[in-house]
Specification:
The protein has about 575 residues and is of the alpha+beta class. It contains 14 helices and 26 strands. Strands 1, 2, 3, 4, 5, 7, 8, 12 and 15 form a 9-stranded antiparallel beta sheet that branches.
Length: about 575
Amino acid sequence: MQGTSPEAVFAAAFEGAVGPCLADEAREDVPDVPGAFVIRNVLSEQEIRELCRAVRLAHCQREVSITCEESERRDSQHHAPVRVSQVAMEPLCQRLRPFLPSTAGPSSQAMLETPGREISTFLRCYRYKEGDCSKPHFDKPWHENNANGSLSVFSAYSLLFYLSDSFEGGQTTFFKPVDAKLLSCSGLTLKSDDATLAVAARVAPKMGDVLVFPHGRANGCHPNPLHEGSTVVGGEKLLIRTDALFRAATMPQKKVKQKQSKRPKEVEYVAPVYYWDHDHSSYTGGQLGDGTERRCAEFARAETIPSNPDDFLQAVDRSYASDAGTMMHLGPARGGYLDAVLVACMPMSVLEVGTYIGYSAIRIGRLLSEPAHLWTIEPNPENAELAEANLAHCGLSGQVTVVRGTLSDDVVRRRLPKPLDLVFLDHRKSIYLRDIADLEERGYIANGTIVVADDIGVMGKRQHANHKAEEYAQYVRSSGRYVSCHRQGDGSGIELSEAVAVGDCCRVEPRVITDDWCTKVIPVESVVVEESEALNGSGVAADIRRLREEAAIARAEKKKCKVKVVETA
C-alpha cells in the first residue's frame, strides 16, 4: 500500500504487520536517570523504511509551507507534527504495552490508558542534518480534561523511536539536576547556553530501538530529566517522538464556594480548568459566571448602529459603569494609551492574547489600515463567540481574526506571522512573563516589536498574580532587552515596551517608546474627557468609583447586621 501523506505512510507501515517478538530482556534501564529505559529492536526493517519515508515526507510538506522569513531553522524546529488515527497506532500499542509502566510514577495512582490507547496519536517527526542539535530542555507534558473540567488523561513519559543510526554524534544526553535559577522563564529551557551541566547518561540511538523516559511534574511521578539531542557530526538522524498516556485517578470533584460581593448571592462553582477541544486548548473560566458578559455585548449591539466601533466602545463603557465595574475592562483611559501606541507605530501585524468579549480587539481593529491584521487569542468558547459577534457588528471581521485556543497550542502559533509588529497582553498576568519569553524564543518578538501589557502596577486580590506581574514589569524595565514606560488609568496600569535587544541582533534605538514620546504623549480625547469629568463627579470613571463606594458601604452594613444577629442569639 502506497501513501501520499505522512499519515497514510505511517498506517501502511503497520498494516498487517506482526512485528518482532520482544523478550523480557529487550528492556534495558538507563543508569542514573530514574524511570528511563530502552526497549531494543521494537521495529522491523520494513517498518523502519516506511517510517523514515513518513518522516521525510512530513518535512518536505513542512518546508513547502514555511515562508522565506522562516527559512532559517532554530534548534527547536527540527520536527514536523503529524497526527495519525487511533487504529494506525494500535499495533504499536499492543507491542509496547508489556514494557510500559503500569502507573504514571512510583507513587502515582494514575493507570496506563486502556489497551490500544496508551500511546498518543500526535507524532513529532524529527530530521536532524549535519550540525543540527536540540539544546538542553525539559519535555512538556500533555493533558486532556473531561466535560466537567476534571483531569481525564495526561502524558507522563516521552517515547523516542530511533529510525537511523548511520550518523556520527546525535546521542540523547541526560543531565544531572540543575539549579532552578539557571532555567528560563518558561521553566523548559536554560537561560544561557553557557551553563555548566553534568552529564548523567548518554544513549546512543540504534535503529529500531525505543527510548522511554519520564516528563512533566505530576504528583507521584519520576522527576523530569533535563536532556538534549547532541549535535549530529555527520549523516542524517531520523526519529519520531510521542507520549505514553495515563488515565487520571478518579477523585471527588472539588467545589469552591466563592462569595461574590457584587452579586446578589453566593455562587457555588467548579474551579475553572483547561481542557483539549479537538485541536486546541479551551478554558471553562474567563467569565463572571452570571451572564454579565452576554448582557453587556447584547446591550452594546442594541444601543449602536452597525459599523460604528467608537459608539460601540462607549456603549460597553456605559454598561461596565452600570454594573459597578465587575467585568474585566481596558477602559477609555488605558485604552487611550494603547491608541497612542497604535497611531505612533502603525503596525501591520498585531497579536492580542486575551480577547474576552472583544472590546480591545475592536479598539485596535478600528485603527488598522488594510492590509494590517489583528489575531486575537481566546480559550473560552463563549467569549470567542461574543467577540466574533461584536466584531461583525462593528464591521471589523475582515481585519480581526478570533483564534480559539491558547498561545501554547501549535495550531494557534502556526497562524501567526513572524515577527509581529505589536503584541497586546491582556489575559492572565501571572503568565505574562512566561509568554513574552516564549514569543521571544520562537521569533514572534524581534527588535522593534511593541509589547503592551495591561493591568500592571496595581495590587489585586491574587498575591501570586501580583508577584508575577511585578516580575514581568521588572523584566521589561531592567533586562536591557526593552525600553519601557508605565501609565495609570481607570484604576489600573498599563506597561508600554519596545524590544531593542531581543535575539541575536545588535541593540537598536527605539523608534516609538522614546524618552521624548513617553514624556510628551497625550492620551486621546476620550481619556482627557474622562479625567476632567472625574473631577466634578460625573463621567464613566466617577460613576464606577461611586458605585464601588456604595457597594462597600452596603457590605459593611450587611456585616454589622450579621454581627448583631449573632450577639442577640
